[in-house]
Amino acid sequence: MDNATGERAGYRRSAGSPRGEARRLELLAKITDDVAENGLVDFSLRRAARAAGTTHKVLLYHFEGAEDLLRQVVFSLRERRIGNALTAVADAPATLTDRVRAAWESLRDEESELRRVLDQAMGLAMYDPGRYAALGRGASRQYLPTLLSFCPSHWPEQRKFEVASMILATLRGFLVDLLTSDDGSGAEAGFEALLRAVEREEAAP
Predict the structure, then answer these.
(1) Which one of 53, 103, 105, 131 counts the least CB within 10 Å of its CB?
(2) What is the C-alpha to C-alpha distance for residues 99 and 103, in angstroms, rounded to an integer?
(3) Which residues fall under the DNA-binding region feature (predicted)?
(4) Tally of CB atoms within 10 A around 129
């Protein structure tokens, strides 16, 4: 991956300009599509520039560097995952248990490329936290609001946070199991146990 710290000297950011922001989003969408298809291995500003049909200097005008660009790409891919889950949940009954089931089915059946890239991002955060910690920290902050919204509206905020955090951590573990096991039977069995725990939470006063 390029170290853009020195390269970006002399380039100004496009933030604040509507035209510049529109161009940034256009570039980001093209690069995100490339990463979704080809993964994070050998990601660099120059590879991103080729995917976007521009130069790495243009990217440095719109982004702070390779790591900033990577963070925004991963954020965009997580937004795709959240959007897919919300679409699935929209047709589910209003109970937390049914919403969690629908979200899990969306995660379980999502395109393998998307899951692979997001797993790679978490791997980078664990392998080199000094450089990529934001990729790991950002995941919980990005996913939790959706899970909080699934919880019954009358629950106290602390209870919502506790239950949503339990669901998030458990589902992320199941996704790792799906990635590393042959048939996914362990994840499915564990998920049924999670649903029973969620049902007990919903039934509690």
Answers:
(1) 53
(2) 6
(3) 44-63
(4) 13
What proportions of the chain, in percent to the nearest 5, are helix, strand and coil? 75, 0, 25
pLDDT for the residue 2: 42
Structural domains of the chain, count = 2
- Alpha-carbon distance of 41 to 34, in angstroms, equals 12
Q: Spell out the alpha helix ranges (H) of 91-184.
A: 96-109, 112-127, 129-150, 157-180
Ramachandran region, residue 23 (left: φ > 0; alpha: ψ -120 to 50; beta: rest) = alpha
Per-residue pLDDT band at 4 (split at 50, 70, 90):
very low
Range of the domain at 91: 68-203
Name every residue whose Cβ is closer than 8 Å to that of residue 51 and which is 6 or more positions away in sequence. Answer: 30, 31, 33, 34
Q: Region 43-56: what's the mean pLDDT?
A: 93
End-to-end, the C-alpha distance of the chain in Å comes to 52
Shared domain for 192 and 92, answered yes or no, is: yes
Longest dimension (CA), the chain: 60
Q: Closest Cα to residue 30, out of 76, 71, 66?
A: 76
Hunting for tokens 């392998």 — which residue is that?
A: 127
Summarize pLDDT for 193-202 with one digit per residue, the tens. 999 999 999 9
pLDDT, tens digit, for every residue of 96-125? 999 999 999 999 888 878 888 888 888 888
CB within 8 Å of 162: residues ≥ 6 apart = none
- Determine whether 114 is exposed, middle or buried from the number of CB atoms within 10 Å of its CB (0-12, 13-18, 19+): middle
